[in-house]
């Protein structure tokens, strides 16, 4: 689903920039959420599930870092 309308006039931020900001925030929020899931799995002594969530958490952190670098370079610092 795509839109031909730029909504930056409403938000004050171009869609592509807003999307990048949203992506970073979502990755960071996911990393936090996964910490709870890891703790839940560990509490149940399920190391297999805990490891899955640790890997997903690492991927979310990586995505956030890549996004933050890109944001920094585009916003002058």
In total, how many beta strands? 0
Shape verdict: elongated
Task: Name the beta content range.
Answer: under 5%
Largest sheet: none
Task: Measure the end-to-end span.
Answer: 33 Å
Mean pLDDT: 91
Rounded to the nearest angstrom, the radius of gyration is 17 Å
Q: Share of helix among residues? A: over 70%
Uncertain runs: none
Q: Count helical runs.
A: 3
The SSE order reads HHH
From the helix content, strand content and strand pairing, which structural class follows? mainly alpha
Question: Could you please describe the fold and organization of this structure?
Answer:
With 77 residues, this protein is an all-alpha fold. The protein is 79% helix and 0% strand. It has helices at residues 8-11, 15-43, 47-74. The longest helix is centred in the middle third of the chain and has 29 residues, at 15-43.
């Amino acid at each position: 689903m795509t839109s031909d309308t730029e909504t930056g006039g409403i938000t004050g931020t171009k869609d592509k920039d807003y999307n990048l900001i949203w992506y970073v925030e979502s990755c960071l929020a996911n990393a936090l959420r996964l910490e709870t899931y890891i703790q839940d799995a560990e509490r149940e002594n399920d190391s297999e599930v805990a490891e899955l969530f640790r890997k997903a958490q690492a991927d979310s952190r990586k995505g956030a870092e890549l996004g933050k670098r890109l944001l920094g370079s585009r916003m002058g610092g």
